[in-house]
Write a structure and sequence with these properties.
The chain is mainly alpha-helical. It contains four helices and no strands.
Length: 85
Amino acid sequence: MPTSTEYRQTAEECYRLAQEAKTETDRLACLDLARTWLDAASRLDQLTPWQVAEAEKSAREQTTEPEASQPEGRSAWRRLLRLFR
C-alpha cells in the first residue's frame, strides 16, 4: 500500500506538470489532481495502525481476485477509495 509520503510526491509531480501545462484547462486539471493526492495523504495520515493493516489486507485479497468487469485503472481507484470509508 502506498504511503502518505508517496502520495505527497505524486502531488508534487502534479504541481510540476501544472507549471508546464500548455493550456489553462490542463493546468487546472493538474492542480485538481495535486489537491486530490494531498487529500489522500492527509486521510492516510489519520488512519490508525489497525485501519492501515485492514486496508492492506483488503488490497491483497482484491489483487488475488480477478476483476473481469473493471478496467485496470478503475479497480486501483476503487481500492484507494475503500481506504477512506
